[in-house]
Amino acid sequence: MDFDGFASHLSERATRAPAPMALARVGLGAMVFAAGVHKLLDPLAWSAYVTDWLAPVLVVSPVVFMLVNGVLEVGFGAAIVADRYTSVASAVAAVSLTATCLYLAVAFVVEGGLFGDVLARDIGLAGLAWAVLVESLRDTTAN
Q1: What is the pTM of this model?
Q2: DSSP for residue 35
Q3: How far apart are CA 122 and CA 68, in angstroms?
Q4: Average model confidence (pLDDT) for the chain?
Q5: Which residues contact 98 (CB under 8 A, 6 or more apart)?
Q6: Beta carbons within 10 angstroms of residue 4's beta carbon
Q7: Axis-axis angle for helices 86-110, 20-41 (nearest 10)
Q8: What's CA 113's distance to the chain center, in Å?
Q9: Of 124, 38, 27, 123, nearest in space to 74 by CA
Q10: Count of CB atoms within 10 A of residue 41's CB?
């Protein structure tokens, strides 16, 4: 196989692709939006991520907690995709995903490896959210 030719073909295609940060922003927004929609459609599935020791701390039931989060995530995800109020929406996503990672890390340690797969994924998503936030703040100050 001609790897150099393939790499050259990909490089040529990349020059016509959207800006990497635009792809990152749309990807983050779509993920937040899709997670919110799924929380609204199946909050019980998402409430499985609430451990027995966290449930009493919540002001509402785990299902209601997920429904409220679903509504918020749909709004913030749509804002990120539409590139409207991106700094605020991506800040909420970054802080929320970071807090989720901290919770999942505690659950991983306390519960003997529980949610390790979700923790690994959410660390990457939190990093993506912080990158989108930083870029949106740079865009705001540049204009």
Answers
A1: 0.90
A2: H
A3: 20
A4: 96
A5: 126, 129, 130
A6: 8
A7: 60
A8: 22
A9: 38
A10: 10
